[in-house]
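Pasting as-is:
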Amino acid sequence: MSIRSKLAWTFILLLIFGITAISSYSILFIRNYLLTEGELQIINDTEWLSITIQNLRIDGDFETNLNEAARTSGYKIAVYDQDGELFAEVPYHSERTAPGQIDGMTSSFEQSERGVLLQNRSDSDELRAFYEVQNSQNPIRYLLISIEKDQIYEPIKTIRWIIYTGMFISIFLVISVSILFSRYIASPILQLESAARDIAEGNVDRTLNLDRKDEFGQLAKSLNRMAERFRSDNEEMKKLYEKQSQFFADITHEIRNPLHTISGSLEMLELNSLTDEQREHYLKTAARQAERINRLFVDLKTLQHYDSDSHFIEKQNFDIKEIVTQVVSIYRVKAKEKGIEIKYEGDSARVYADPNKIEQVLENLISNAVKYTNRGKIKVRVEKGSDDCSVFIDDTGIGISNEHLDRLFDRFYRTDKARSRDKGGTGLGLAVVKSILSAHGTDIQVNSTPGKGSSFWFTLPASG
């Protein structure tokens, strides 16, 4: 059974039971109300009938007058004399009461208001009242009147018809409203279920347009946000997959080229006709390519630790000037060989970072500056602020065009692949720089102009 049918039948049954219970209670309440009113009425009528009867004359019109009083009042009337003997009973068409005395008849009566005794037995079809006539001008001493309970309940037949008619009309309306309401309730549920199933099957482009202000509208918005998140995640996964595929392709390419060079150099070294100068050249070539592979794996290890190791960096307080001057002194010889000047500017500045990882950052940035600067100078400077310390590496090298800046720090990305490999780069240096600085909660910045040079800088927090 569908949820729409379940909702419809639930509403219909609940409302039918409710309407039936209310209708039954209403009829029972009215029935009891009519009986109570009948008791009050028979008490009042007994008093005025007693007044009428005590003034009747015993003559030829006595029974006619008594019968007229019964007809007018609508009651059965029985009168008794001083000895309790039945004196007369009307109307004439009623079944006559057996002759006898009233002794013991009133034992089942209950004392009511104004001296009227009332009898309302559950096993009797009549409501009866007994009254002692005072100061009568005739032999009548006691009055007994009665009425069929069906006469009292007579109005309830019309009321019951009205209630039942209204009940059936209400049930019809309830059924109609329940069907419409169940459709109204079930429609968004079915839409939500369909959308959730499509999203679960991978159709993340599915959107829900439920213009509702209730919980269904909120759920629809949540599903749309979930689908949007899935779409975003899918796009990210596609990009990651593409980057991963490219990453492995680049690793393969980066390792294959030096291996081919090493293999070729070893084959040439097997030749006996090589001169000592040629043999030394091939040995150096093989050693240089082996060192290139070693640097590649060192960089890959650093990136792998960044991706998976929560303790990738171990911060401590140190003077960054000591590390900068140490790295500058290492690359000053290579810079001098190319005819360029490299110098350091700045005072001591204590920072809170990982000294080994920051040294690795400086080595990559300064080595790149030396590689891609053919004339001019390289300047490394430290600027100390109130809460942080900035390190700048400025060069007058070949520069980088704007089209490459967005992807400059991607793994294995090269602005000029042929020239980069010729200079011995692994394509991971700047990616390592970015990863280390990201782990420190900062980032590498770059500003470059082709043909004029580049400027790289980063900021570290000052130690307290």
